[in-house]
Backbone:
């Protein structure tokens, strides 16, 4: 017979990886609960946000307030473990008035595409001449910005990606952290970034374009018997 402590190195390594995945999962649950408390607080406070969001040279949205926020998550099975696949923080910024963008008809398709990429809703009206040729298009922007912060774990590389969409600009930024870097000081910097009080969060980890977490098909880990006859 063989005691469990004399298990082959592969079994020990597999157990170690399972423990690491569990610790990352527990960290994400902690962050989820922390963000839920923040979301409830922000819902009551409706704080001002000092970022100015510039859409090229065509318009600027400023004097914003944070009006709505909530946290969501999804779980996924990795072998015999059920772990968090992602945590996502959603919020909405409101502008006191509807910006207007007026561009020549020849530029309207490009501007419309860029507005959609930025997640901005709008109403479009065309201006035509007597011959019904489109001379200009006017876009009335719905005065809100929808922003998201998505945390995605990589349970293989032991990293956590943080994707910021419309947080301090009309753009998506991808940062990659080691789990130990996402402590409460970092989360407080994240909230300060949201409110426009500090950009320190953006210096806490490298920006990595097009980062995606590893999505392997984990092999289920079978229970190891204490004794093997």
Residues:
């Amino acid at each position: 017979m063989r005691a469990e402590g004399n298990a082959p190195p592969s079994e020990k390594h597999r157990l170690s990886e399972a423990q690491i995945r569990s610790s990352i999962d527990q960290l994400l649950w902690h962050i989820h609960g922390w963000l839920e408390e923040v979301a409830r607080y922000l819902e009551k406070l409706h704080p001002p946000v000092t970022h100015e969001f510039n859409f090229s040279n065509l318009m600027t949205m400023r004097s914003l307030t944070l009006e709505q926020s909530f946290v969501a998550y999804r779980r996924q099975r990795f072998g015999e473990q059920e772990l968090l696949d992602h945590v996502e923080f959603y919020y909405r910024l409101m502008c006191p008035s509807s910006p207007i963008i007026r561009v020549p008809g020849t530029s309207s398709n490009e501007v419309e595409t860029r507005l959609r990429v930025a997640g901005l809703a709008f109403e479009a009206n065309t201006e035509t001449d007597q011959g019904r040729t489109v001379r200009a298009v006017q876009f009335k922007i719905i005065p809100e910005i929808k922003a998201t912060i998505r945390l995605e774990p990589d349970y293989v590389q032991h990293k956590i990606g943080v994707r910021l969409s419309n947080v301090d600009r009309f753009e998506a930024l991808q940062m990659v952290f080691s789990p130990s870097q996402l402590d409460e000081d970092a989360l407080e910097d994240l909230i300060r970034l949201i409110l426009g009080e500090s950009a320190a969060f953006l210096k806490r980890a490298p920006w990595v374009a097009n980062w995606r977490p590893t999505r392997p098909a984990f092999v289920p880990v079978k229970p190891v018997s204490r004794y093997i006859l």
